[in-house]
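TA notes, week 10

Several of you asked for a full example with nothing omitted. So below is the full record: structure tokens for the whole chain, then the designed sequence directly under it. When grading your own attempts, check the secondary structure regions first.
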């Protein structure tokens, strides 16, 4: 199994454990990454940034977002996910830094 898939599976397991429900799956993450690539290619950076910054509101309730932020693993997984987006070619290193400042 690739390192990427292993990370996606670990991320899903931890998010779902924290929330107590099956909120995300590996397939959903893969689809969101593909969608982010498509948005970047067809609509540009600003639409991509909007997509990425509003993604959690589409996936989780405000209470669930609060619980995730209180998790000890929130920063680690957010940072790793953004690094993976750079690796996948969805965002640049500079955009990753900007998003990390917004998230943390």
């Amino acid at each position: 199994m690739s390192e990427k898939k292993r990370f996606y599976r670990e991320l899903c397991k931890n998010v779902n454990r924290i929330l107590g429900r099956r909120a995300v799956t590996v397939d959903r993450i893969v689809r969101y990454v593909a969608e982010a690539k498509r948005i970047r290619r067809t609509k540009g950076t600003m639409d991509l940034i909007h997509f990425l910054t509003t993604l959690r509101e589409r996936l989780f309730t405000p209470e669930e977002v609060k619980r995730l932020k209180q998790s000890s693993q929130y920063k680690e997984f957010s940072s790793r996910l953004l690094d993976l987006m750079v690796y996948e070619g969805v965002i640049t290193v500079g955009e990753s830094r900007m998003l990390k400042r917004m998230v943390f």
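Residues 10 and 65 are 18 Å apart (CA to CA). Use that as a sanity check on your answer.
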